[in-house]
Amino acid sequence: MPAPRKYPQELRERAMRLVQEAREQDPDLSLNAAVIRIGQRTGVNADTLRGWVKQADIDAGRRPGVTTSDAARIKELEAENRELKRANEILLAASSFFARELDPRLPW
Length: 108
Hints:
Layout: H1 9-25, H2 31-42, H3 46-60, H4 68-102
């Protein structure tokens, strides 16, 4: 179960929009300066806001990295892979058990 969100989605979107607008109005403004300025105004931790902005840039294709949808898909596939490995171990143990039941002379 994911952790509860500390900031409402509306605040998150507003803060990211404000950072984008601040950087558009002042092209010399660095991401860090914009995040600190907007973070103080909105009450959002600067590191948290920086992460949101970076992830939004990745999702929009403006920055290289793993998109949110790709990360979710990877997580889903890893969980499926763990389950399949677990099922495979169970089937291997069961086949070994039944092979011994059929022929006790086998060394397994």
